[in-house]
Amino acid sequence: MEQYIIKGGKPLSGEVTISGYKNAALGIIAAAVMTDETVIINNVPKVKDIELLLKAIEDIGAKVEYSKNSVKINGSNISSVSVDFDYIRKIRASYYLLGALLGKYNNAAVALPGGCNIGSRPIDQHIKGFEALGSEVKIEHGLIKANTDQLTGAHIYFDGSSVGATINTMLAACLAEGQTTLENAAKEPHVVDVANFLNSMGANIKGAGTDVIRIKGVSKLHGSEYSIIPDQIEAGTFMFAAAASKGDVLIKNVIPKHLEAFTAKLLEIGAEVEEFDDAIRVKASGRLGNTHVKTLVYPGFLTDMQPQMTTLLAVSKGTSIVTESIFENRFKYVDELSRMGASIKVESNTAIIDGVERLTGAAVSAPDLRAGAALVIAGLMAEGFTTVENVEYIERGYEFFEYKMQQLGADIVKVDSEDTKAIKKFKLKVG
Ligand code: UD1
Fold it and tell me: Is the pLDDT of residue 113 over 90?
């Protein structure tokens, strides 16, 4: 098993370039199979979740060519509309293939999704969307099956704002007959990016980024070349890592507007943040202050940045409160932070954080993707050595994570937990 070993205490400094947004890429890759023409997608992050989704579309007959951060996809030879592979259950966004294949072939079956274990993750709103478009939806033998003779546009009011349900229904509705209106739609940047990509393929989607999306069905989609937006979560993670390490980092290839909720909190607790057209600089010195944070749908504070925020507040002055309102079980990493000396009490969906002067290095284990990144941030701040196990979670969503950290001066290395020689070598090197 691979693990990160981190020697804490060094401020991060220099420049880091943010990769394409994994969560947008997942929707866009699924959408790419909806045309028989070739699609080229640029700025695709090389991360595990993307590799798995590409493998899934290859397995059903799509042609996939991956070079550097570009992927060429041709879905004209798709031979099966059933996506049921062991590995596909590991990624939550595999369900986007349901909307994409249902739209294109009126028929799809996809293994029920897995993904990060951060609480119960129902798919009732996806099903509501497909049924409203005239599809029958069944769950049988671990598969969600959707089929219809003809998808027909509909007026759909989602019960809650869901990124997944909005994108999935939008995918199917693009090729439905007539007009679809999605109300209470999710407004997250990746909903907009998937809509822009679909429009570049000839779809007719208006209003993405607001809570009402209007889609006029078209009879077919065509090829396109498209570049994915920068990853707001990776950018946010480096912003918080810069502040936590009392560093000074220029984070390049970002859309500052997507980072406003993080910028506002960093400024509030005393960090310096400077915005440029497509870059952001975060600088901190000394101990930061306390605050209250509640995770919300966009443009509120993103739930995927909650563990990184809590970790930063664990060493800030005073008492902070972090409330998680999107996923019910997203504080599992707190036990790991406690092993490093943090003082955090979790009561239902709220963490009460008494900032301590310092964390101390310990062996910890990443419980999920974003919490894994947060534990690396904790390691950067801690005195001595921290070992973060289960790095495969982190690699699901962060491209070249330890390499980018190393470029900023962090003492971090990825080693096999059995490789005692490499572990010893790293420890000797960094002292
Ligand atoms: C996406 C992101 C994830 C992020 C989340 C919230 C991807 C691949 N993942 O996840 O990183 O944390 O948005 O910004 O883009 N819900 C229902 N019924 C449904 C669907 C969702 O009740 O049918 C609930 C969920 O339990 C959750 C809330 O709605 O409480 C938001 O979930 P949703 O926006 O759908 O998250 P995902 O698309 O799974």
Answer: no
